[in-house]
Structures are given as structure tokens and as C-alpha cells.
Amino acid sequence: MRKISLLITVFTLVSTPVFAQIAPKPGFAYETKKQYVSDPNIIYGQLPNGLRYAIQKWDKPEKSVSLRLRIAVGAANEEKSEQDLTHFLEHMAFNGSKNFPEGKLIPLLEKEGLKFGADTNASTTFSDTTYRLDLPKSTQLDLGLNIFSDIADKLTLSQGAIDREKGIIEAEERGKHSPMKDLINYETSKVYDGMKIKDAIADVDLNIIRNATKAQIEKIYKNYYTPDRAFLVVVGDVDIEKTKAMIAQKFGGWSGKNTLAEPDLGKVKPRPNDVDTYVDAQLPNKIEILKLRNFKEVEDNFENSVKGTNQGIAISIINERLGKIAIRNPTLYTFASLSRARDKKTNLDVLSINILIPDNKSHVAAIKTVENEIRKALEFGFTEAEIQEKIDDLKLSTTRALDAEKSRFNSSIAATILSDFSNYDVTQNAAADKEIMLKIIPLINEKVAKDEFIKLWGNDAPQFFVTQNAKVENVENIIKSAWEDAGKLKLAAPENEIRKKWEYNNFGNKPVTFTKKIENDFGASYYKLSNNVNFIFKKHSEQKGKIFINVSFGDGIFVFPKGQKDLSAIADLTLISGGLGKYDIIDLGKLNSGKFVSTGFHSEEDTFALSGNTTKEDFLLQMQNITAYFTDPAWRPQMYDKVMSMADMLFDMQRMTSNSVYGRYINSIISPDDPRYRVRNKEDFLALKLDDAKKYVDEARKNGPVEVLIVGDVDEEIALDYVKQTFGQLPKFKDKQEQYLSERERKMLRERKIVNLDHDGAKDDALLVFNIPTTSFKDGKEARMINVLAQMLKIELTDKIREKLAGDYSPSSSDYSSSYQNDFGFIRISVSPKPEEIDKMQNAVEEIIKQFAKGDIPQSLFSRAIDPYLENLSKEKSYTRYYLGVLEQTTFKPQWLDIERSREMMYRKMNLSDIKAVAKKYLDVNKMQIIRVLPKEKSN
Fold it and tell me: Are 251 and 47 in contact (CB under 8 A)?
């Protein structure tokens, strides 16, 4: 009977089409969803032609404005013969319009202080096309609205411009190819067979792009770029009424109306107990357990919000249980997580469990473990302690949202308003969200969470998708049998674990004396405590209620023996996850639930660093957490074992793409005689020992020197008191860092060398990199000129390699000038050409380098590079992250403050003659390395 029922269900799904609501519903969500309170700071409006808009006055960043224009058209609206043409049209928005001729818009925006990509961009998804402008000055609102108005109905769409853009789109598509993308294509074709989403995810038919005509693009433009499908967002330091008038004046004449039927999305075809498999040596071993359903609309009311919250809590608890197993017994699996994705626009409601397994012998153990955990939840539900932890986390998230709301930037607010409109949701403020959540929380309990998870999981059998890096015979039956056998096991109810008591709250009670000085121009206080702990404090309230902590100690990667630099990776991956002496990472998660505490660790070139961010309420607990990790890290070997169990996967994946191969070899190419940078193989990695990483980091912990940096919205007296209670109680540390003079020497290859490498990935994936030696940072003067030179090269590469030759979608140029290693720096140019065009692109890039070296650089190019940077200089000191970056380690390197003091003046005084001088000095084609990475079959 059950099999017949399922067949009937599948037949019904196939025979009844479902149409997507891609075009927005009339009006605004708050007009019909009266149970929600629309944020009163957002002013909504609609023009007579149907264009809807939202305006919010906001002053972060100061005197700036963010614009978004959403058109309700995407891949869902395309016929097969039009695949990716909505994306093509998005590209054409920057290629000529009535008021912005082809080739003029991007240079104009750069002159106005915007970087293409960072401040101005666009994207096309399954259901919409969105244009974005983040303008540094609110006085540029008129310009931004003019650009969007032209995009709306004034694009020229010349056939010449369309033809020139074809190669760029082809290059963009080429950049997406990889073994992982091949996997996604295959899995989608199997799992979502017959659905519209399958065609949207599949690789683009490049013949459609190559043969695209003006008539095809114009058809999409005329049919879908209509005011009733559009939504405009303006967030910034603007006058509301004047902005309304500007929108009416610039968009009021836009005509047209949507008359097209919504696209047929298709229906899912569940295949209970079926197992699909995919084999690729470069991919990790993974099992996916899937339950596929069609999207079912539920009324957006309080009762369903309570149900949804309990479902979310059930999923979160199950993931915590699965994660606990991965941490405490990584031989079963290295990662497992349950998730749910509901999307009306794709007609999908997918419940999935992703399991990453260490090898091809772990399928049975992983499947049985996960099945048992799911069934425990279905049979026994959740413990009181687990539910309470999640309630604590919900309370924290609502408080966090209230604080975060005051510190949001224009861009994030605009993105939220846009997303909510697209999903027909009401954008509330954090206070309204909190009010609803406080009503929901009393209705969260073990019984409801269990009942809602039972409904969510349902009685339908799952299907499976298995990815293998080596074929396992009969894996389909292995998976089915493992799931069936697991279901026969008798289970015990989970124990109600009691949350442990926090014991790292007393590091001593000795008196702490200190000296203090103030760096007035940075507004920073410098303390030296009696045990030689250095403390830097900067009060900064950009992010309301947030406090950031960074503890630098010891001498970093320099302490590791030559040839064992990778011990830093072992330390970075295991110190935090290994937990503390008294608690493992699971215990810590429970102890910190409902608290804003986050601790991290990383190794830098000449220091180790513990970091955290918190709120005023949890500031002391965060300081205690960091101090506990500083004094008593457990270095549990399970975490090291977990890292090592992934070695096969990590090294196999290094041949997956041109970029991964390049990343493995580049350091050995530019420093061929330095054993620290030789190419590592899997055996080298497996030879790294946890005890060795522990030895060097522990030595740094015990002896120092130590610097505690605190930047945030807190009073200095409180910060000083908490530092005295924690780091001030520790034994005396060394006062200064070691010099490590020999480690600071790193010789760069300064002769022309061409290196040919190959990869095992996509056949059209190629990479061409030029490494041009420069110099270290020193006093910053020359390094800053090199920085501008690299940006100018990037613009020139975009103009010539992308726009004229269509050789790469996004050619890049970056620079690095070391502050740690003497005479070490480079400009790095990267292009991803067609494999068959790699010689052509190499010649083209070399010509650009030679052109710059000769001083053949126009003033306009300098302006396009420097203007966005100068625009940002005046605003960066309003950001907390600026002070975190500038003040770190300045106890040990006080000269960095003087270098920073000179930065703005240096950039403002810089001129084209300066750039030409460094170009002539360093852009020498006879001293650079050229790295060419091609698919293995084409590398010869």
C-alpha cells in the first residue's frame, strides 16, 4: 500500500504545474500583514507607473548613500533558448545608455571615488536582477538615480557592444568551472530532474551567448524591465521629501507593464531509498540524506511563527548533537549537519543532512550514527537543558540585534529592505522583532519542539546522494542497508546534561601597578603593567555596545624551526577547538550559551594572537575566556587527529583547480633556495606533530612578551580593571620581542623565469600569473606608491584584457610589501585566460608592463586609481576596524605609529611622476616570474 501511495503522489506532482511568483505582489507586505510593525524609519512609496521605492535616512557611513534597484527577472524567466540572457542584459547595463555612453560610466564612477566591484556592482539570480551603488557622498544621490534611471529604460543595447561583451561573459562562465561545479551540475540533474531550477544551475550553453542578438536582449529588456516589476531602495544621509521628488522626476516617465505569465517551476520527483553516486578523485567523501518536497504556503501568523521557532530549535539541537560526535569521535565522520531550505521562488522545501566522512570506508558507521541521532530526536525529543540553552541563545540574539541595529551601515540596511520586499516580508526594527520573540519564548518547550520535528521529518523515506573520491563497489546497497540496519537498533534516551560551573574566574588577587602614556592623535592610552603586560586602549563607539580584544604574544611563526613553518597551521586548527584544561569545546559552548563570547587564535609572522569580541554585559567573561586559553589550553589530541584524517582530501583537492595548484607552488617559485618555502607533500604534513606546535606556542605563552589591545564602546576604567584582574595577575613576562634576524631575511628570485604547471580540473580552467619583485614596507613611502601602481595596473588590465580582448572576466593586480621580512615584496598580476589563448594573454600583459615601465601612463589613469582611495581616507577613522589594524603590535613596534601618521599626507601628495619612478624601478620583465597553469591534457 505504501509503495502505491508514493507512486500516486509522484504522478500527481508530475502532472500539476506550479507557477513561480517572480513578479512582486501588489503593494507592500506591511499593508496586508497587520500583525507586524513596519520600521517607522523606512518611508515607502509608489509612483503612478507602478515603481515602488523605500527611503531611510541613516548616517553610517557619514554623509554617504546606498542605492539598490531590483528588477523581478532572473533565470526562472528564461526559455532554454535564452539561457543566461538575463545575466547578459545585466552586463549591458554598464555598456551604454542615453546619458552614459559605452566606456564612460566606469571611469566616471572611479573619478567620483567608487571602485567597480566594491562600491558598484550587479547580480542576477534565479528570480531577480539587482543593481548596487554605494556612493561615498550623499551629494552624489542625483548621479546615482540618473544611472539607475538609465538602466531602467534608456539602455542603448547596440549590437557592437553586445558582441564585445560576449567574450567577457564567456570568461566569467569559464571562471566558474571546477570539479565542484561539475558535481553540482550532476547532482542537480538527478535530484531536481524536471524542475526549472535544474536548468538555471546547469552550465550555460555558450553557443547561446556567442550567438546572442540585439533583438533577443531587447525582448527581455522590454518585457521585464517594467516599473511594476521594479523596487528602488535609498538609504543614507538624505532628505526624505527631496528624495521622493527626485525619484518621481527621474522615474515617472518610465512606462511599460508586465503582461507575461509566471514561469512553470515544475515539481519535485521524490525517489525514496534511491541512492545516486558521483566519483571524482579531487572531491571529499560525502553523504547527503535528502527529503524533497514542494513548497507549501503557510499563513504568516503568530501560531506558525511559534511552530517555526520550535522547528528551528529542534534542528539546532540535533546539529549540536551531531557536532559533538564529530569533535569527540572524528573517526565516525568529520562533519554532519541538518538543514532546511524553503523557497517559494523555486518551489522547493528541502530537508538535508550533509555528512563529510574521512575516507571511503566510513559510510556504514556514519550513516548508522546519524540515523540514530535523528531517531533519538523523534522518539525521545530534547532535554530540558538543551531547550534552555537555545532559549538563552534566542534572548542573546534579540539583545545583540538591538545593539547591532545602531551600528548598521547603509549598505546592510538597503540589503535587508530589498530582501524583505523580494520575499514579501515586513521589515521591522529590532525592538519590534524582540517584542514578538519575547511572546514566542514562553511557548518553546521540549514537547512542542519534539512534535514539530516529528511533523517536519515526516514518514517519507529519504533518498541519498554519495560523493566519492574513489569508487566503492556496491555502495548503493551499502548505504541502503546501513540506513535500514540502523533503524532496527534500540536506542537509549539522551541524558539531561547539567551545565558545568565556570571556574576560570580568579587568576589571582595581587596588586597591579602601571605606567601610562597617551598617543593623543590616535586617542589611545598605552599602559605597562607591573608584570610587563602591555595594554593599549582606544574607546570607539562606531559599533554600539561592542568591544574587540586582541592579545599578541611571543614571536609568532618565526619561532618554528626552518622547514616546519606549517606547524602554525596545526596550532591554528587545534588550539581553540581543543578547549581548556577543565572543559572541552562542547562544554565551553554550553557554558557560553546565552552569552556574547567568541575566542579565536591565529599565528602571524612575528606574533601569536588570541582574539575575541563581546558586549559590555559579557566583557569580563570574554576576558576570562581569553585568559583561560592563554594560561590553560588543553591541546586535546582528538582535534589533531581530526585534522590529520582530512589530509588525503586536502591534498587531493590541491589539484582541483589552477588556483589551488598555483597556491601550492608559488612560495617555492619566488624563494627557491629557502627551505621554509619548499613545496610540501602529504607525507610532510602527516609528519607534523601536535607536541611540536604545542611546544613553541606554550613557550610563547609562558614568556611573552604580551600586548592586550582593546578597542570598543566601553569606558577605559572598566577595561583597565578587567585587564588587571586577568592578564595583570599572571607571572612576569619578557619585555621585548626577539629580533630573529636570520628569519627576517627572505631572498626573492629576481630573474626572469617561466614555470609551467598543470591541474586535474576543468578543461577550460587556466591561470597566468606574473610575480614582479618589489621591496619591503620600510617607512611606507615607496610601498604606498607601489600600492597605487598596482591599482593602476588593475584598471589598465580591466580596460585592455577584459574590455578590449575579452581575455578574462576579472583580471587582477595586487601588491604586498612585507613589514616583517627584509626586502620582500611584489606586485602580482593574475589573468584566467582560455587555455588556447594563454600565449596571447601573456604577450598582452607583458606589453602593459613594458608600457608602464617606460612611463607611458596617462594622468587620467592615476586619477582613476587614487581618487577612490583618497575618498576613503577621510572616513576610515570612523571605523573600529581601522584602530584594530593600526594599533595592533605598536607596543613592540612604536615606529608603526609614525608610519601611519604619514600615510594620508603621502597619498595626498603623491603624483604621477612618483608612480612613473617606481614603475621604472620595479616593472622589469627580465626580473619577474611567470607562472602558467593549464589543464593536464593541455599542459604539453
Answer: yes
